[in-house]
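Intended use. Records like the one below are meant for learning the mapping from a protein sequence to its folded structure. Do not use them to infer anything beyond what is encoded.
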Amino acid sequence: MLDQPIGVIDSGVGGLTVAKEIMRQLPKEKIIYVGDTKRCPYGSREEEEVRQYTWEMAHYLLRHHHIKMLVIACNTATAIALDEIKATLDIPVIGVIQPGARTAIKVTNNQNIGVIGTANTIKSEAYKKALLSLKAGLTVQSLACPMLAPFVESGTFLDHKADEVVKGSLEPMKGTGIDTLILGCTHYPILKEPIQRFMGSDVRIISSGDETAREASTILSYKGLLNASQEAPVHTFYTTGEQQNFQNIARDWFGYLPGKVETVSLEQIYQS
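Structure written out for the chain above:
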């Protein structure tokens, strides 16, 4: 059980931002990552589709890789499917919204927090609910940025400056008085530098990867599931889409290729 991998799932490459942090904080743990790049983005899809696709990834990891923990490293999937999956599976399941909310509350000084995310994440008000359940009296300003995840997923940020795309998406958040901005989509930390440039140095930019990895570590430790092996783990990254593009983005984000990259088809996996 201890040497079983941690499963990390996302609509595409965004969850790599969370996987990287888990690998940094839990260097002995093996990661099996599934990015559903073929059907990305989830942000504008019907809720039922998002729920089914998230279950397909979870079932694949459970059946073929016998994971000991599932990390839903996608804000849209967390908002729509986390509670149901958590209630159904008998392994620990964590999402990225609560950790992101906790981090923002720790760092805000003026209690005015901005959230950017996909249309589905913003519509669900999952961050607003999480933030206000942790601390009443906060001001929460939310903005859907439907262009950003596809921009990251396309890999074009590797060739072009992202400043224009970021400016076009975040313009309504400028001048709102927030001192903290939650990147409510795991694709967005890949654009953290241009987002910081646009928002200015007095706004703290929060991504949930760090706190999500900390939560994974705490739960595995509490349950006695931490890997004690001395062998270096071999990570595997599965994409449902184009392998080369996924590899290029992974190499750019990690600074090296963090494991094997393979293609997988999920459509046949799901059975309700």
